[in-house]
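Case study 2.
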Amino acid sequence: MNDEIDISAQISVQLERANGLLERVLAEVAKTPSTHAIFVDAGYVYAAAGRLAVGTEDRRAFDLDAEGLIEAFIDKARTIFADSRLLRVYWYDGARRRIHTVEQQSIAELPDVKVRLGNLNANNQQKGVDSLIRTDLESLARHRAISDAALIGGDEDLVSAVEAAQGYGARVHLWGIEASEGGRNQAEPLLWEVDSQRTFDLDFFKPYVSRRAATATYEAAGTPRPSREDVRFVGAQIAAKWLAERGRAALVDLLPGHPYLPGSVDQELLVEAEKLLAYSLRGQSDLRRALRDGFWENLQTRY
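Prediction:
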């Protein structure tokens, strides 16, 4: 009888220890912030956004302000995943022999952005991009590096990537682009597998997609391309005006997002700068970066 009591007491002690350990683990998990990442199939974005905004999928016919669009995606994710931090943005594209183009190099230099390249065949079709997305999604989910993934794409081959990430407990949220002719530009099996869906309309993409003829109009008028320093100075001018109109409270709200600007502020900055410069900055990531740098530098000196 005494032996049975001793065994029972030992079991009770062990259970208490196990419960205490579990409570500590749960407490640590509760303190760990959620983390999200954004996975962008650039081929899908160029095709769908180009057709929606300018009526063509031909990349040669329009400029895509990838830097501005990435910042808009980050800003949107910050709103949707309010209690989560961004791990990074993964930008998947194709290139001949996987050698970065000038545009892809400029995207790769952006903060919190990782460019991953598949191959581009003789017909300008991407090869290997879907497998790259699956590898990254699965690896990050398996190592508990992310709790949520925003996936911007439409190919049915991405279903396996979604299933792999979900198998390790991550939630996958599919973001899409409004189809210009109605209907859908994302595979139904992909829509069925994800945890949530969201579609961005024409108004969201308008600031970031423009026909190349728009830039040619400025060049035809004889307006030279401004230097980075000229654009940086204009950004500082606009910042001073912005702060004078909105006050210090607006600045305090804006600073935590550095180096990113909310989409509405970024678009206002772009439009105002193009008026002052009489020159289009669409699709010119180096000048757009100089503009934002000037804007931020001016605001930070006043804080």
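The CA atoms of residues 14 and 20 lie 10 Å apart.
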